[in-house]
Specification:
Two copies of one chain form a homodimer. Chain A contains seven helices and four strands, in the order E-H-E-H-E-E-H-H-H-H-H. The first copy, chain A, is α+β, with helices and mostly antiparallel strands and 205 residues long. The first copy, chain A, folds into two domains: 77 residues, Glutaredoxin (3-Layer(aba) Sandwich), CATH 3.40.30.10; 116 residues, Up-down Bundle (Glutathione S-transferase Yfyf (Class Pi), Chain A, domain 2). In chain A, helix 1 runs parallel beside helix 3, helix 4 packs antiparallel against helix 5 and helix 4 runs parallel beside helix 6. The first copy, chain A, is globular. At the A-B interface, helix 3, helix 4 and helix 5 of A face helix 3, helix 4 and helix 5 of B.
Amino acid sequence: MKIHEYEGFPNPARVRMALKEKGLLGQVEFVSVDVPAGEHKKPEFLAKNPSGAVPVLELDDGTMIAECSAITEYLDHFSGEPVLTGQTPQERASIHMMQRRAETGLLDAVATYFHHATPGLGPDIETYQCAEWGQHQRQRAQTGMKYLDGVLSAQPYLAGDTFTVADITAYAGLMFADAAQVAIPEDCTNLQDWRQRVSQRPSAS
Amino acid sequence: MKIHEYEGFPNPARVRMALKEKGLLGQVEFVSVDVPAGEHKKPEFLAKNPSGAVPVLELDDGTMIAECSAITEYLDHFSGEPVLTGQTPQERASIHMMQRRAETGLLDAVATYFHHATPGLGPDIETYQCAEWGQHQRQRAQTGMKYLDGVLSAQPYLAGDTFTVADITAYAGLMFADAAQVAIPEDCTNLQDWRQRVSQRPSAS
């Protein structure tokens, strides 16, 4: 299988972390898409993912899977027991819910701030910007950080006692927040401690 | 189990349709949340779902599961084989991807238009609005309809040959679009045909 991506960007980092957690890194061929040059908005790439975003997983039969959470579903069930997305119905539901909250409340909020209220990837790529909405999403991201901090006051990981895809999404969200200069509120000590712990996982390197 | 919801609204409709597809409707107690009166933004409900949105699934042990896609994960694995979210890794991934596209490109886009560029649920509930972004999302919803129409030109359902949670999400998205007066583009005949077929399922009544 192939992953079309741009290394170092937050969403590709989610899939790389999932690959490492599953021990699948060696089974994937990475294909670089020049996102800073806008290659992800060109027809050749849009044929792979009409949403115009990386990463995309290309299966051996040519099937294209976009959306990090969908790619992680595939990888987590590809071999061995699922370790990132849950096994029981209740685990599956709780992890899925927290993954969504980390995505909409943090990672996507930071992304919207970056693409709408900063120069983002530059005028050739950011062809429509709504700065007011972008600034609002910056606040939402920090509200999201406070929410996640509260969750982590009661349990070691976002969906409970074990590391899951919800943690991957939030970890990439904080990586994006760093890049976009959206600071973690100082009183979010649980979130900072969690980040420190996650950064020590082999999959975070 | 209980579902906290407001009957007739698009997101609660997604979960009711999933319950009917799974034959689980009789196993659920529905608890009405007065969304038009803003009950979903009050502290008592926010303790159940800090996102302030219905529906929420309450399990018998008190666990709260929010986010329609997470609730559907639970219901689809609660009894019997999964019929809405896929069984093989590839099915799971493709369905998950299409569910996300129907959600972000149609249902959520319509919702954002409704809450930001129309009076929405009224001034007491819509305490922040960004009309420019709302109008942009209206366009995005119609672009999303065209995308889904294209998918349906090649296959009977959004994720392939069988009805899945991706179809539920898109069907509720069109229900919301009707309510918000976002018309389906006239040339989207595949989408219209699909909607007609889905409307004839027992779960759509």
